[in-house]
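Work Package 4 report. The design task specified in the project plan requires that, given a folded chain encoded as structure tokens, an amino acid be chosen for each position. We show below one input record used in the internal validation round.
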């Protein structure tokens, strides 16, 4: 951690002691805890350095060699490098690396393929889907006619329903991808359905792109027309995103790459974040190293080991396991709406995850009945299968302690007061205090920056 403190704070400290202190506290929080939010990771010092580089000073609307401003020769070089690396890694003929983040990348897909009011299909948000795949309060559900598809009672995608809805509704665009789905995505099957109804098929692999590159999850590239991904999840890069067109996409629509580029700029964005592009280039360079494949496979091994250890402790998992980096704990054996208690108690014990809906959740999205967790960040820190026993034990101890003891009041006006009481009570809980002590001691063996110090 000392290298990290030096890396950051020398200049910030000189000019702004307040921000410097906050950054130091965040380094300490990360170092002294286990990060189990499956969409988070720990980037290398090289990625951090590129992100903090002088490229943040530059404006460069346009694309390499076709810019509206001068002085872009170095920006061109770094953007072309990122594009070439993305194309090679994912095996696609076209990549755009300028998207500010995942939602704008997905927006570009709509802009390039649909008109407002067109029918689109994606996995329903409470069933694990993403906001931008057609959720009612998101632009994608407001400007397009969204026909969501669902998971079955067993937690797996309902392919029969997807096909039936597609035939009935003739969507222009079908998404496959999710924020809370623990099984392999059926890219091939959904690709066939999209072909049957003439829809564009976009695979949003934000969560699993690192696994795809590492050979730990099937690639959507042979089946989809468009692939989007954020760069900060299993790919282990800066916040950002990419949108890629496959050969299949170009065969369907030879203009697709051009349409997507135009959708990103000038359709949706202004100047790209060149410091982010530089950091994405570094990330993709790291992902080309053989050790990244090992890393991706280890993420999945750790997730499977954690799933087994949890189930041995009678913790229920949606689909009874995982194929990827993620687990969804179903807390309904303890009652409904228990996610908030588990998330907050674990937070106190320095284990971070997030409350999440489970399929057919009997409660609400704000007070859901599950928690979502995953292994990308702890794998980066060097934890292996044998360590999952400890992680599972801490999770199980706290789940059993709070999920059976606390229940949300039926009267919604009483929830705030109940949660306030819960929060003050758990501060004195001996089991949570003991787990926190053990977690902090354990974290010393896995410093934040030892495995990625290049
Ligand atoms: N917020 C992201 C996640 O946690 O999965 C998705 O956008």
């Amino acid at each position: 951690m000392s290298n990290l403190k030096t890396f950051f704070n020398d200049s910030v400290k000189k000019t702004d002691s307040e921000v410097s202190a906050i950054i130091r506290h965040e380094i300490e929080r990360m170092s002294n805890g286990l990060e189990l939010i499956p969409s988070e990771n720990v980037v290398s010092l090289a990625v951090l350095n590129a992100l903090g580089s002088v490229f943040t000073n530059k404006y460069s609307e346009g694309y390499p060699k076709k810019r509206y401003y001068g002085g872009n020769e170095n920006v061109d070089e770094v953007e072309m490098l990122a594009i070439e690396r993305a194309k090679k890694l994912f095996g696609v003929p076209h990549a755009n690396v300028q998207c500010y983040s995942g939602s704008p990348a997905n927006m570009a897909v709509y802009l390039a393929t649909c008109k407002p009011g067109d029918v689109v299909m994606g996995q329903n948000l409470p069933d694990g889907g993403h906001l931008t795949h057609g959720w009612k309060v998101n632009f994608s559900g407001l400007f397009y006619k969204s026909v969501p598809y669902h998971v079955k009672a067993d937690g797996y995608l309902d392919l029969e329903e997807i096909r039936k809805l597609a035939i009935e509704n003739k969507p222009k665009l079908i998404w496959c991808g999710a924020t809370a789905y623990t099984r392999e995505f059926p890219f091939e099957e959904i690709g066939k359905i999209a072909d049957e109804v003439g829809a564009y098929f976009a695979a949003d692999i934000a969560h699993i792109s690192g696994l795809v590159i590492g050979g730990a999850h099937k690639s959507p590239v042979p089946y989809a027309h468009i692939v989007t991904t954020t760069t900060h999840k299993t790919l282990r890069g800066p916040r950002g995103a990419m949108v890629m067109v496959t050969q299949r996409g170009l065969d369907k629509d030879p203009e697709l790459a051009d349409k997507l580029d135009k959708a990103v700029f000038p359709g949706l964005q202004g100047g790209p974040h060149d410091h982010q592009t530089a950091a994405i280039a570094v990330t993709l360079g790291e992902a080309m190293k053989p050790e990244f494949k090992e890393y991706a496979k280890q993420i999945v091994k750790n997730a499977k080991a954690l799933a087994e250890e949890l189930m041995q402790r009678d913790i229920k998992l949606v689909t009874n396991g995982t194929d990827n980096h993620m687990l969804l704990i179903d807390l309904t054996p303890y009652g409904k709406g228990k996610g908030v208690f588990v998330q907050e108690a674990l937070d106190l014990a320095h284990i971070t995850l997030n409350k999440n809906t489970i399929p057919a959740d009997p409660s609400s999205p704000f007070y859901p009945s599950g928690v979502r967790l995953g292994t990308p960040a702890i794998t980066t820190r060097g934890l292996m299968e044998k360590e999952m026993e400890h992680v599972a034990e801490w999770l199980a101890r706290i789940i059993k302690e709070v999920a059976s003891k606390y229940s949300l009041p039926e009267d919604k006006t009483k929830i705030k007061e109940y949660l306030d009481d819960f929060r003050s009570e758990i501060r004195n809980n001996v089991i949570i205090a003991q787990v926190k002590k053990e977690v902090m001691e354990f974290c010393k063996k896995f410093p934040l920056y030892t495995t990625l110090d290049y």
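The chain has 18 helices and 14 strands. Validation will be extended to a larger panel in the next phase.
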